[in-house]
Amino acid sequence: MRRLDKIYLGTNTKMYKSIADTVEFLKRLDDLTADISRNLLELFVIPSYTALDQARRTVKEEYIKLGAQNMCWEDEGQFTGEISPLMLKEIGINIIEIGHSERRHIMGETDEIEKKKVSAALRHGFTPLLCIGETLEQKNYKISDEILKIQLKVGLNEVTEQEAKSIWIAYEPVWAIGVNGIPADEGYANEKHGIIKDTLIAMFGKDIGSDIPVLYGGSVNPQNAEPLIKEENIDGLFIGRSAWQADNFYKIIQSVLPLFKEKRKIF
Q1: How many domains does the chain have?
Q2: Does the pTM exceed 0.90?
Q3: Cα separation, 101 vs 108, whole angstroms
């Protein structure tokens, strides 16, 4: 089965849920989705660092993959406040989220830093989820495509064709994220996903590049999830606050899964 014959659905809880909240959320989500074949669904949650150990003890990775919101590119050293790949590997984490817009635009991370983190994640057997996206200013200057290509070409610069088989991409326009985000319409999102896919194919070849999942994130909600997932170039959704209650997340999963199956002609 090609990777793109399954839908990728996940959430990053940012700095919101306590350990107890995270455990309760995961237990409920696990129960609700137990009857959905994981051949069709790649389900993942990226909680806060402090909840990761208990989260891993709560759900099996074959049902819900867990990710870290950030990671240092060095295994150890004088990096106060950072988290080592070895520490995350010890817990049993699957995914490393890299380059979220808040890391880039609040914490000042550059494409070069994201490149180091991608390489470190691959070196330790993680799935790097590289987040890319343009600001509103860049969009207004009509340089969105160039920005996305740069973020991909620098962030994935050291990735081999073989390693690229482990990469996931999330397109998150900066202007669409957060409480005051303006959701991108499905046509715009699909167009940018097309640019991303073309760039990945140019970098890694058609067979590998076209098989890299590209998820849309940015104010995904129950109203726009369906039109987004119908678009050809959108392989999944990286959902924010609309997925932070397990029952709400499950409703979105239920609504988009049949549409995805229809799009991919999975019967």
Answers
A1: 1
A2: yes
A3: 10
